[in-house]
Amino acid sequence: MPASWKPFHKTMKKSPRTKAPKPTRTVSIIGTGSYVPERILTNADLEKIVETNDEWVTSRTGIKERRIAAEGEHTSHMATHAAKRAMEQAGIEASEIDLIIVATVTPDTFFPSTACHVQRQLGASNAACFDISAACSGFLYGIEIAQQFISNNTYNTILVVGADKLSSIVNWQDRNTAVLFGDGAGAAVLRYRAGSHGVITTFMGSDGNYGDILHMPGGGCAIPVTKENIDQRLNTLHMSGRETFKQAVVSMLAAANKALEQSGLTVNDLTCIIPHQANLRIIEALAERLDVPLSRFQVNLDRYGNTSAAAVAIALDEANRTGRFEVGDYILMVVFGGGLTYASSVVQW
Ligand code: UT7
Questions:
Q1: Does ligand 1 lie within 6 Å of residue 244's CB atom?
Q2: How many angstroms is it from 176 CA to the middle of ligand 1?
Q3: Which of the following is catalytic: 235, 279, 306, 320?
Q4: What is the mean pLDDT of residues 13-42?
Q5: Residues 103/131, Cβ–Cβ less than 8 Å
Q6: How does pLDDT run across 102-124, given as a tens digit for each residue?
């Protein structure tokens, strides 16, 4: 990393977004859903694949097991399962969806977009569809985009899905990364709801200077799919673990504070915090710096590992369905991911 590059949080004040935009229409999350594949891969299973052990993985990450998609089960299939559950909870038909946004870095195909695959599987024929690429931050990027489209009156009902099949890009011989990731999908339906609670504030940021600390170098036009590139494992995920850890804590703390500042709330107003599920030690560091007990955080990485764009969406759905918050409660979602990207959102349920 060139010494001239400043830690990105020092440049965050340059963000053009200094104040929460005043939504002209209230945008609510009216349904959530999630899906994880059936197959469980435990730390003990991983010991047979790569040189690692349960004690190391548990103590360094908090992860005990993760889910792995079945043969032929793609990102769009997981996304569709999660979407159907969110739609069922929201009480809407596929024909009511105006826009489908899928956040993923493991699309079924470069094109058509995974959102178009989901549209076909749902039969949501009235929707426009596109994918967004913001790695683990993608779901909250999607929430912000949906919030903008609904509050400015372009659309009424939007399906946002975070879905990733990271097992398809993990290098299973690299113990630094193979133990961390899993597959899954989470979804939310957003809609205009007059005079009700909803998305209070959203915040997004990025710093491309840190792109190479967590990336997949191959597969795009820069390093196309060739036998040589595949042999060098350039089509797999590469990560500098320690650097990513550091940036994760700094960026999630900054994004959390930004969302609180924009919403005029303090941490004491929050019933529940839903963070990105990458490493329990990252969440503990965030809890300590925000001065909030860990018990107020929704944590499921012990069961699913890091599911990338799906992580915060699955955690939101689990928190919602297990009654961790009630109507009127404030929740904070906060994420970070490859790019670097980071994002946060305060929602009054
Ligand atoms: O969505 C965002 C994605 N990524 C993240 O958020 C990841 C952020 N980073 C992390 O979570 C942590 O840095 C890791 C879990 C990846 C690594 O933990 P660490 O405490 O930073 O370990 P380390 O990379 O400093 O490695 C410490 C030791 C090394 O051995 P030596 O050189 O000290 O002998 C590694 O080779 O642990 C070794 N090690 C392992 N040992 C057993 C690394 N991975 C493993 C493993 N099993 N799976």
A1: yes
A2: 5
A3: 306
A4: 76
A5: yes
A6: 999 999 999 999 999 999 999 99
Please give the backbone phi and psi of residue 299, each rounded to the nearest 5 degrees, phi first: -125, 125
Residue listed under structure tokens 């840190």: 210
Q: Which of 136, 272, 279, 300 is catalytic?
A: 136
Q: Which residues are within 8 A (CB) of 154 and not within 5 positions of it... i.e. 6 or more apart?
A: none
The ligand 1 atom at the shortest distance from the C-alpha of residue 241 is 13
43-83 tens-digit pLDDT: 999 999 999 999 999 999 999 999 999 999 999 999 999 99
Dihedral sign from CA coordinates of 312, 315, 316, 317 = positive
Give the pLDDT confidence of 188-230 residue by residue, as tens digits. 999 998 776 799 999 999 999 999 999 999 999 999 999 999 9
Q: Angle at the Cα of 16 (from 15 to 18), degrees rounded to 5?
A: 85
**Ordered structural domains, the chain, with CATH:** 28-196 (3.40.47.10), 200-348 (3.40.47.10)
pLDDT digits (tens, 9 = 90+) for 122-159: 999 999 999 999 999 999 999 999 999 999 999 999 99
Give the list of residues 6+ apart from residue 220 with CB closer than 8 angstroms, or none.
none
Q: Is 276 a catalytic residue?
A: yes
- Is the distance from the beta carbon of residue 115 to the nearest atom of ligand 1 less than 6 Å? no
The Cα-based distances of 212 to 1, 194, 237, 244, 311 in angstroms read 9, 44, 11, 10, 22
Question: How much is the pLDDT for 193?
Answer: 84
Residue 117 bears catalytic tag = no
- 81 an active-site residue? no
